[in-house]
């Protein structure tokens, strides 16, 4: 499933050079984006970057100040929300407190004047989908946060929109429930084959669920790619730092040797060797080298002379997370970096301790170069 890599695929939603202004403020700034049928698409970005505004324009609650949004090739300009095959599930689930679960789910279908039998069939189908059959007669106040979230989802899905927009759908849930519900949402989306566009500021959530992620900043899209590409090949320093943990080593380019970049950095005594052949760089250019903490190794013994990418330092502190241990290492340059190590067995003989002299290493292909 990768319609975005097919140049002939027709997007379900096309956002073309859209700008949205509120007075002087620019919420969305010349933004273009294609979303394909059946995609689980996440809009990810810090607070205020314009995610919700973009969603509200797709839903029809706001009109673009400039540019155009089309669905299956037809412009949506002037089409009111209820005439769009798009449904939006809001952050506050806005369930009707005086209606039972099944009445909540049936509400929109009744308004649309569907026959009674059809409504009952769809409500039954939705209750099964979100696993709330046993709670059909309860009222919202008698449900947990996670159950309410599922009712809201069922209600939004019951109308069978082509596109479901979800604004921070899991924001109200605690961490554990949120993680479980992420997988449920993916399963439901998969089963229905519907297009989901989810707004979140939680990068782990986006990584877990999305087919593709659009990372937004200041009303613009900075990168659209699969979670793997965003994490392994971030385009900018902002993305590298926003998605996952990262160490940034600053330096300048010495040149290229056998297809590998040589970079002088204060973080290491010897020039660094980086395998990032797609970058076009010139000598003396200032660059940032991004290395994820789990792609670095930490050892007590000095690596052999001639080893690549050796950073000497002292263990500043150690955090034990159960599945991982995080070492913060103060490099000889004074910079502090993070190295994580998976705890693969329960006992570690002679573990590295606070204040020890250590060497951090990483392979040339563990790093990416970001032009400054
Ligand atoms: P959050 O994650 O905090 O919800 P967001 O990325 O969804 O943020 P938006 O709600 O789209 O961001 O807001 C983008 C910018 O536009 C913000 O600076 C916000 O203050 C501004 N904005 C949004 N709606 C309006 C409005 N109705 N009137 C004026 N300014 C607005």
Automatic annotation (TrEMBL):
This is Spermidine/putrescine import ATP-binding protein PotA. It catalyses: ATP + H2O + polyamine-[polyamine-binding protein]Side 1 = ADP + phosphate + polyamineSide 2 + [polyamine-binding protein]Side 1. GO terms for molecular function: ABC-type putrescine transporter activity; ATP binding; ATP hydrolysis activity. It is an enzyme of class 7 (translocase). Keywords: ATP-binding, Cell inner membrane, Cell membrane, Membrane, Nucleotide-binding, Translocase, Transport. Its EC number is 7.6.2.11. NCBIfam families: potA. CDD domains: ABC_PotA_N. GO terms for cellular component: ATP-binding cassette (ABC) transporter complex. The keyword Nucleotide-binding applies. Residues 13-243 form the ABC transporter domain. The complex is composed of two ATP-binding proteins (PotA), two transmembrane proteins (PotB and PotC) and a solute-binding protein (PotD). Belongs to the ABC transporter superfamily. Spermidine/putrescine importer (TC 3.A.1.11.1) family.
